UniProtKB/TrEMBL annotation:
<dbReference type="GO" id="GO:0005524">
    <property type="term" value="F:ATP binding"/>
</dbReference>
<feature type="domain" description="ABC transporter">
    <location>
        <begin position="25"/>
        <end position="264"/>
    </location>
</feature>
<dbReference type="Pfam" id="PF00005">
    <property type="entry name" value="ABC_tran"/>
</dbReference>
<dbReference type="InterPro" id="IPR003439">
    <property type="entry name" value="ABC_transporter-like_ATP-bd"/>
</dbReference>
<dbReference type="InterPro" id="IPR003593">
    <property type="entry name" value="AAA+_ATPase"/>
</dbReference>
<dbReference type="InterPro" id="IPR017871">
    <property type="entry name" value="ABC_transporter-like_CS"/>
</dbReference>
<keyword id="KW-0547">Nucleotide-binding</keyword>
<dbReference type="Pfam" id="PF08352">
    <property type="entry name" value="oligo_HPY"/>
</dbReference>
<dbReference type="InterPro" id="IPR050319">
    <property type="entry name" value="ABC_transp_ATP-bind"/>
</dbReference>
<protein>
    <submittedName>
        <fullName>ABC transporter ATP-binding protein</fullName>
    </submittedName>
</protein>
<dbReference type="InterPro" id="IPR027417">
    <property type="entry name" value="P-loop_NTPase"/>
</dbReference>
<keyword id="KW-0813">Transport</keyword>
<dbReference type="InterPro" id="IPR013563">
    <property type="entry name" value="Oligopep_ABC_C"/>
</dbReference>
<keyword id="KW-0067">ATP-binding</keyword>
Length: 328
């Protein structure tokens, strides 16, 4: 049975409906608001239990803002975030505290996401103490278990973050995300700051942990190689909008949106000429999210744009493989 068929029979763990996250642009001594950066602008999607949804796009397209909004590190201006049937978009910080054990995040930079003044034992035990999930006399044993789950030795707990390599630091960040036994983890470009060999190790670790603990991931990344490897489905984001979403196989082997085709063509493969791979070069700069183009936001760079593309915004309809493009 395909993932699409399975998904029709279960309720999504998290569902996003018309989500918008805007950042005010302020000027002058009195900080007058003169506009908004539309980082996330009307995004909708579903993530089902036990699956990984990959979110890809260029820098500045709103991927990280999307992830930070889902965990309420950023507060949305509009829309719904339905987690296990409850709309958490308007939850207060106090209400969100109760959900932190179910929703966690792995940050992009392992150098800045760990407190350099705390030993690893303190970093990993802090969420256990805050949420009171483990008896005080069992915390040390639980820290050892967390370190073992990410393939680090017990003696690592007595060291500071600066004593580890980048890959090891990211493992500590993953262990911290696992501490409260969450159901949903946002992976915000967790391998982009690592070298290639370490990236592979961390990706394999995440896949193993997902299977072991039945985790659900939103995996945010620039590199399609990492996204292809870990994702069941892929959503392609451009300038605050989802332009295409479908199974990994459909997106990789049958891309429909011109932007998706351009992203895939930029991914390096062995002997591209022998495999018929044609590089798609996008002209022009990415428009400002503070003043996005009318109609389809990609029309200013699209080699196939028609008159309708600049006038009417294409709709992303529901379906196993959905595309927001007038030409499809």
């Amino acid at each position: 049975m395909s993932n699409a068929e399975v998904n029709k029979k279960v309720q999504p763990l998290i569902e996003v409906k018309n989500l918008k996250t805007y950042y005010p642009i302020k000027r002058g001594i009195i900080s007058r608001t003169v506009g908004y950066v539309k980082a996330v602008d009307g995004v909708s999607f579903k993530i089902y239990p036990g699956e990984t949804l990959g979110l890809v796009g260029e820098s500045g397209c709103g991927k990280s803002s999307m992830g930070r909004t889902l965990i309420k590190l950023e507060h949305p201006n509009e829309g719904e975030i339905i987690f296990e049937g409850q709309d958490i978009a308007k939850y207060s910080n106090k209400e969100m505290l109760k959900l932190r054990s179910d929703i966690q995040i792995i940050f992009q930079d392992p150098y800045s996401s760990l407190n350099p003044r705390k030993r690893v034992s303190e970093i990993l035990s802090e969420p256990l103490k805050v949420h009171n999930t483990v008896p005080a006399d069992q915390i040390s044993k639980e820290v050892d278990r967390l370190l073992a789950s990410v393939d680090l030795q017990k003696n690592a707990k007595n060291r500071y973050p600066n004593e580890f390599s980048g890959g090891q630091r990211q493992r500590i960040g993953i262990a911290r995300a696992l501490a409260l036994k969450p159901k949903f983890i946002i992976c915000d470009e967790p391998v982009s700051a690592l070298d290639v060999s370490t990236q592979a190790q961390v990706l394999n670790l995440l896949k193993g942990l997902q299977k072991e603990f039945n985790l659900t991931f939103l995996f945010i990344a620039h590199g399609l190689g990492a996204v292809k490897y870990v994702s069941d489905r892929i959503a392609v984001m451009y300038l605050g909008k989802i332009v295409e979403i479908g199974t990994t196989d459909e997106i990789v082997n049958n891309p429909q949106h011109p932007y998706t085709k351009a992203l895939l063509s930029a991914y390096p493969v062995p002997n591209p000429h022998l495999r018929g791979k044609k590089r798609v070069i996008l002209e022009g700069d990415v428009p400002s999210p503070a003043n996005p183009p009318s109609g389809c936001r990609f029309h200013t760079r699209c080699p196939y744009a028609k008159d309708i593309c600049s006038k009417e915004e294409p709709e992303l309809k529901d379906g196993d493989h959905a595309v927001a493009c007038h030409l499809v």
